[in-house]
Amino acid sequence: MSRLKYTFFTIIIGFGFQFGNAQNISVDEGYTPQDLVEDILINSPCANVFNVSVSGGNFASGEKSFGYFDATGTTFPFQNGIILSTGKINNAPGPNSYLSDDGGSMGWDGDADLNEALGLSNTFNATVLEFDFIPLGNKISFDYIFSSEQYLTNPSSNQCNFTDGFAFLLKRNGDISYQNLAVIPGTTTPVKVNTVRGPGTICPPANAAYFDAFNGTTHPTNFNGQTTVLTAQSDVIPGQTYHIKLVIADEGNYRYDSAIFLGGGSFNFTIDIGDDRLIANGNPLCQGENLVVDATQVGATGYQWFQNNIAIPGATSATYNITSAGDYSVEINYGPTCQTTGAIKIEYAEVLTINQNTFTECDADTTQDGKTIFNLDTIKNQLFINLPSNYIVSFFELPTSTTELPSNFTNTIAYNQTIYARVMNVQGCYSDYPVNLRVNTFDTVLVDETIGLCENESLILDAGSGFSSYEWNTNPPQFTQQITVNSGGIYEVTLTNALNCSKTKTFTIEASGIATIEDIIINDFQENNSAIIQVAASSLGDYEFSLDGVNYQDSNVFSNLSAGEYTVYVQDKKGCGIVFETFYILDYPKYFTPNGDGYNDTWNIKNLDKRNLENSIITVFDRYGKLIKQVSGANEGWNGTFNGEILPSTDYWFTIELTNGKTIKGHFALKR
């Protein structure tokens, strides 16, 4: 017990009497090779077996690497059968409590045929069971399980490729090469630890559907894991002699034993009476079709046909005419005690009933050219009343087409096109089904509108006449041609025409209102006098501005203004009204002409009183800074004299002390 797998093995020993031997398989080394093949593996009076031989380990204790196993009362899938091992079969019974790796340093060689079959050169500890047989039927099969200590539950990464090898080698007498029957179903890949393994360890799973389990200590065998029950099978020629060699060996070294369990009585000679006719295989019988099955065998003395395991009265000929679905089998007798069987499964293709074959869509794009996208997956589900879930339906543009149409198909013929539905996985029973695709259009051009809505007013939105239905996105929805709105927002109406096609028109309602002039910011006494018209933030509209009530601009800034009186007009662009206000631009004259003609005879600042600046002080100087005149903004100004003396034509300077705290300085010309 130095090779303990689990530290709690002593616990298992402690409960040994409770579990009893019925928990685990037992082995028997007393069977002769002939008995193992004839009485255990084949167990049929029809067996014609000869040249049976077995070879394995030559243990000094006389123990064997092959023999009989009994699993009655255990959870092991086989009740009994043959075991072939790379170690002592006495180590095969459970519990799975220690590592079995017998056969080291005893000159126990591998097998050349196994090496060739698996492409190996380093096998050891080979156990071989081989025999000749003459089959009655044209097919042989037998069941097996591959078990191995190399199915480690906690391997290191370098152990992921550890594997032993085995093969079931078959050849007809006279043939040169063997055929390996121990392969993963549907492939030529040999069954080994690294080709059939489940998930749950750091080693990658492989063909996990064929892996049974990693074993705990209570397993009926002393192996770390095993495959599911697998079936080896091959076609054979009745009456011919075949040789079969069942061999297993360690690969690389003697460590980590493996075993093959062959199911007792599972080696069968059967008759191939034809392929199953199944929907899944694409070859069911069509409705009304019959199938004559022929089980004729040389030397047969009688036949009995069965449907769903029930004998068919009177069906005792070598042939049988199948007219309905079911599992059919035939027993072929070769005398009172010898019998072979054949089986075939029959399904019939469903009679498909059309539910709907014309499908209409509305042209969904803006071109309205009679072409749009059809979802063929949706059409498939609506086409037939009784389409089975496992039927594969594809669509083609023409009955002769071989290129399948995409699921989202845009018709290539405007307005009306016929495509064809084809059942892909049931060949020969259905012709193509025509499917009509129709495209309706909405030809009316809809133009979205943007409309202003003045404060405290309402507005009627009209979607236009001539449509079969209307639906507005109001809350709750409204279904009339016109609606009344009294607030801004986005209003959408879905219009449906007589062809049941729809479009959406959008009304963008922009709330608006008459402006409130909050301020006019004047920047005057400048080379470029300007005014900025400020509208109150509470004003809702989009406004434009004018100084003459005729020509409007978007900008609220007016520049290059001469001195004088102005009226600014502020107009709502949505028609909600106009407001206006007067303002004054102040500036000083650049010259004056005091010649008594009544025009421009005095130099003064006009409209100071209009800005409440009439109390401003204006001081005039000559070019030498001499004070000439000081007047208030309310006076008429300076007449060009000093102490009654007429002053000469020249430039004069001034200072204006505005009552708002601003000081203006400059010069002007006196001209005579």
UniProtKB/TrEMBL annotation:
InterPro entries for this protein: Choice_anch_L (IPR049804), Ig-like_fold (IPR013783), T9SS_type_B (IPR026341)
Pfam families reported for this sequence: CHU_C
Family annotation (NCBIfam families): Bac_Flav_CTERM, choice_anch_L
Protein name listed in UniProt: T9SS type B sorting domain-containing protein
Native species: Flavobacterium proteolyticum
